[in-house]
Specification:
3 helices; about 35% helix; elongated; alpha/beta
């Protein structure tokens, strides 16, 4: 029996599959970034308004979610009133005129939403809006 070694080509790095994977990852991260920017928490039920309409979204807008129990959540982080005030102050210093969207649960006491509005005004943020849902 002749067990001679057949000449094999040297192993090379395949570039085409790597480019495909990189482009898929790029598409995934771009898509997830867009949805993260338009953050909306599923456990908040917005009050409906007849005159409500889909707003024009602004790049980099800050979304403050106010839960029924009064918790204030920004970018997935639950903040106390003092922490929220500090965050809004820093945003005003770095980005004057930054838009803020307040998403209050319909079961939340109005005082919680007024507190957030008051914190925005104290931080010199006058470009804020209150999100509502469209009636079905």
């Amino acid at each position: 029996m002749n067990f001679s070694k057949a000449k094999s080509e040297p192993i090379q790095f395949q570039l085409a599959p790597m480019i495909d994977v990189v482009f898929l990852l790029l598409c995934f991260f771009i898509t997830s970034t867009i949805y993260a920017q338009w953050e909306s928490e599923m456990d908040i039920t917005l009050p409906t308004a007849e005159s409500g309409q889909n707003p024009q979204r602004f790049e980099g807008e800050i979304i403050i979610n106010v839960h029924a129990d009064g918790r204030k959540v920004v970018s997935g982080r639950s903040l106390s009133d003092a922490e929220l005030e500090e965050l809004l102050q820093r945003i005003t210093e770095l980005f004057p005129g930054q838009p803020v969207v307040i998403r209050g649960d319909e079961a939340a006491a109005f005082r919680h939403i007024v507190t957030v509005m008051d914190l925005c005004r104290e931080a010199d943020i006058f470009n804020f809006s209150i999100a509502t849902g469209i009636p079905e």
